[in-house]
User: What shape does this take?
Amino acid sequence: MYGNKYLKYFTIKSKQSAERTRDIFVVNPTAAPQRIDAINPSINVFDYSASYLKEVTHTSIESCFEYKENGHVSWLNIGGLNKQNIESICQHFGIHFLIVEDILSVNQRPKMDEMDTVMFCLLNMLYFNETTGTVETEQISILLGKDYVISFQDDSDRDVFDVLREKIRIPTSKLRQSGADYLCYALLDMIVDHYYIVMEKLGEKIELLEEQIIRFSNTSSLSEINHLRKEMIVLKRNVAPVRELINGFIRSDSELLEERTTKYFKDVYDHIVQANDLVENYRDMMINLQDLYLSNVNLKMNEVMKVMAIVTCLLAPATVIGGVFGMNFERIPILHHHYGFYIAVSFMVIIPIWMLYTFRRRGWF
Assistant: This one.
């Protein structure tokens, strides 16, 4: 009765864990994407130069066509993907259909391509969900063309670019004084820097788990270890390929990238290398935590076995003495003695006390 009452909680937890595992490992990039088109995508535009700024939100894709080669740097951020809208704007800006397929894809590996007159990169923004303790991903695609940058993201309600928008609004900022390639760098830099925030959250979880395992290990500790190891896989899958992505910009000879901008991409490259090393350290820590958990379990088991062995040893003299005097012989020494019972009980007490003293002296417990 009571087992069935509490079993449902373990069943729900196991089901959630299985679903998380399936979400992480069941990835087939060759399958047709099952993406639901956004009903009301948002289109935020920053059209600017050193002395000019226009910030506007459009409701139709056609209203964005005017920003192609208008003499200013234009950043079009499209939140909420709609196949028809994406095909329309990509056709107007002369984007290859293979890039359109990548933008509409799901669970795509971070990548960078140069095709025709544009540079394209795809990667994931990472967020840490405090409620579920999981790493959430949002795919973002960035197109760099002549004097424009177009970014596509799934969720229009959240991103990591608010600081970047504030910098664009400042007339003397580096962004306002630079071209579209610097804007592309700034977008990638913001995404990579936000990886560290997610890793810090996971690092705090690992530290708390380590302290919990050292103080008291239980089955929930093992469950938490498995949970964090899965999140490390998500982190590794999304962080590691970005190194190759940034390196593609550094090695590129495209006319879209000014030579002075290369050093900024090298800075992002250093950040992503460091982030990748940090992820590897976290993975090693999780392996060490699992070993620590197993060691603690074995240590507790050894302590239990030691206590049971000591108790057994202490009871052995009483068992032997009681067995001897319980034998069915007619003549047993001091069997009928007036103080025979007290003598036997005294031996049963004195011998275990002497054994305890000996064990303690030898450091057995």
The chain is about 55% helix and 15% strand. Strands lie at 42-48, 53-58, 73-79, 111-115, 118-129, 134-145, 148-153.
